[in-house]
């Protein structure tokens, strides 16, 4: 299919895991943005999604013209051995949808999504695109994963690490580097919202707020951030730390334990997870944005969407130099990089930002420009369209 041709009216079936609380964490945010790109290109989207961690049980359907959704809710309390059975209803609804689709798109996280997509794509002779965004944490399923990824017509890889893995380890021929991208019109600094949110959070005008958003998983390095904050607080009494998120999985950092017995507890603001569209409102209330991931395999693979969101806000952004972050942030040019897991490195960088506000905000402005040029819908849309046209046979 010629990449100059119009995709309007073609149908895409998307299968992937959803975030039932609407927070748009990780892969869920990636799917939201990918769906918006497909809709912008004029495709009819049929989204078959599921949640292993819902607060209810059942099937929820919505029809919004060119965008249809079927959400399969499975309660978080359901025994783990029963959750894989969700593949049966996912298979059924994907079957119903894909018969008149022009292409299938699936995240490559669990077999519940990609197995039905690849099988039905092959059965109905429909092209399949798999979105490779993470490692396989279930070694028992590696044979399944290896065989199914080879059967896909195209692979989107979120990081250079995963691009090379698809090419060299899985021997996929048609791999496209497709970094995280965001709605830069949504993620932008808003002074009016800043005043509103700071008032809600009881923050003073003179407070300098270091902000974090995301999960409390150990690999996020929240303990590193808190330890750095304790040191900084002694030198800069006006600083505050805002942490927005929660424990999404068992075994993650317990915030109560992290904060137990520390002197600066009253200067740390805890914010529950927010709907994805509201996240920029809170980011506007902060002054310095942080992503303090430690050095481990999951982070070497990752290309976290929060970093792209931070840059787009036009605020000073401090991140660990690990994985895809080093491709997104240019140290001292568009943002600031620190040694992963190193409290002293983080303290020095944040203190430099506090002491050099004019230069820091100039660098933050460069970060906003990079987000607009490299990670906005408009900058990614051409690549997505080119990829779709390559696999769609019409």
Task: Describe the fold and architecture.
The protein has 394 residues and is α/β, with parallel strands linked by helices. The protein folds into 2 domains: 186 residues, Glycogen Phosphorylase B (Rossmann fold, 3-Layer(aba) Sandwich); 184 residues, Rossmann fold (3-Layer(aba) Sandwich), CATH 3.40.50.2000. Helices cover 40% and strands 21% of the residues. The chain has 15 helices and 14 strands. It has an 8-stranded mixed β-sheet, with helices on both faces. The protein has a 6-stranded parallel β-sheet with strand order 11-10-9-12-13-14, sandwiched between helices. Helix 1 links the parallel strand 1 and strand 2. Helix 6 crosses helix 9. The chain is globular, with a radius of gyration of 21 Å. About 2% of the residues have low confidence.
Give the helix proportion (percent range): 40-55%
Q: What characterizes the major β-sheet?
A: 8 strands, mixed
- Count of alpha and pi helical runs: 15
Distance between the termini: 6 Å
Task: Count the E strands.
Answer: 14
**Strand fraction:** 15-25%
**Which outline best applies?**
globular
Integer-rounded radius of gyration: 21 Å
**How is the largest sheet built, in terms of strand order?**
3-4-2-1-5-6-7-8
Overall number of structural domains: 2
- Give the second-level CATH assignment, the architecture of the largest domain: 3-Layer(aba) Sandwich
* CATH topology category name of the largest domain: Rossmann fold
Question: CATH homologous superfamily of the largest domain, by name?
Answer: Glycogen Phosphorylase B
Q: CATH class of the largest domain, please?
A: Alpha Beta
| H and E string | EHEEEHEHEHEHEHEHEHEHEHHEHEHHH
Average predicted local confidence, pLDDT? 91
Helix-and-strand structural type? alpha/beta
């Amino acid at each position: 299919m010629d990449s100059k041709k119009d995709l309007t009216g073609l149908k895409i079936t998307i299968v992937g895991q959803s975030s039932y609380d609407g927070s748009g964490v990780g892969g869920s945010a990636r799917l939201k943005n990918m769906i918006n790109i497909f809709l912008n290109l004029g495709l009819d989207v049929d989204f078959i999604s599921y949640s292993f961690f819902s607060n209810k049980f059942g099937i929820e359907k919505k029809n919004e013209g060119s965008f249809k959704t079927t959400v399969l809710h499975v309660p978080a309390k359901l025994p783990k051995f029963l959750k894989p059975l969700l593949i049966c209803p996912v298979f059924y609804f994907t079957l119903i949808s894909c018969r008149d689709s022009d292409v299938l798109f699936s995240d490559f996280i669990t077999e519940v999504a990609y197995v039905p997509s690849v099988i039905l794509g092959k059965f109905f002779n429909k092209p399949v695109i798999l979105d490779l965004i993470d490692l396989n944490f279930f070694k028992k399923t590696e044979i399944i994963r290896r065989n199914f990824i080879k059967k896909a017509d195209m692979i989107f890889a979120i990081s250079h690490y995963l691009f090379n893995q698809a090419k060299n380890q899985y021997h996929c021929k048609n791999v496209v580097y497709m970094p995280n991208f965001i709605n830069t019109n949504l993620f932008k600094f808003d002074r009016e919202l800043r005043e509103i949110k700071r008032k809600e959070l009881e923050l003073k005008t003179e407070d300098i707020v270091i902000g974090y958003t995301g999960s409390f998983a150990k690999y996020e390095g929240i303990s590193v951030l808190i330890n750095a904050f304790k040191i900084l607080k002694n030198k800069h009494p006006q600083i505050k730390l805002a942490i927005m998120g929660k424990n999404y999985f068992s075994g993650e950092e317990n915030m109560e334990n992290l904060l137990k017995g520390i002197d600066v507890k009253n200067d740390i603001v805890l914010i529950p997870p927010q709907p994805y569209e509201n996240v920029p409102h809170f980011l506007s209330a902060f002054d310095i944005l942080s992503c303090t991931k430690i050095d481990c395999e999951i982070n070497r693979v990752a290309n976290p969407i929060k970093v792209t969101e931070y840059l787009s806000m036009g605020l000073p952004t401090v991140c660990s130099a690990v994985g895809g972050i080093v491709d997104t942030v240019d140290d001292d040019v568009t943002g600031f990089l620190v040694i992963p897991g190193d409290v002293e490195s983080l303290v020095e960088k944040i203190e430099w930002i506090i002491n050099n506000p004019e230069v820091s905000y100039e660098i933050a402005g460069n970060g906003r420009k990079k987000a607009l040029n490299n990670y906005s819908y408009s900058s990614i849309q051409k690549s997505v369209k080119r990829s779709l046209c390559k696999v769609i046979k019409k």
